[in-house]
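Study this one:
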Amino acid sequence: MSYEILKRHRKVWQDKKILRDIYYDWYRLILENMADNRPVLEIGSGSGNFKDFFPEVISSDFINCKWTDLSLDAHKLPFKKNSLGNIIFIDVLHHLANYSGPQKRDSVLRCVSKKKEAQNGQKKT
């Protein structure tokens, strides 16, 4: 993937309302099912579509783009333990190298706070 390809994807996104409508339904489901904790990191933000829908997300991608907040390697997240409330991936897993096994999972999950809040304000465990 390159910056130029992501720019083309962003243009397609802007030009195709039906595509935005479909993804916005998915984005609403993601927001409804996230823990209430903040901050929220999106890994693999690509053309920045989720940030258009949820501006407070920390958008990130391997490729540095003017519409993302961070350029990072998803295999080596630069965050402290328990520093994030949620991590989301949308259309990303197939881009990650050998993303399987407990070590890889734990390297991501170490960044996410264990505290979870249900939609009704009660703590989940």
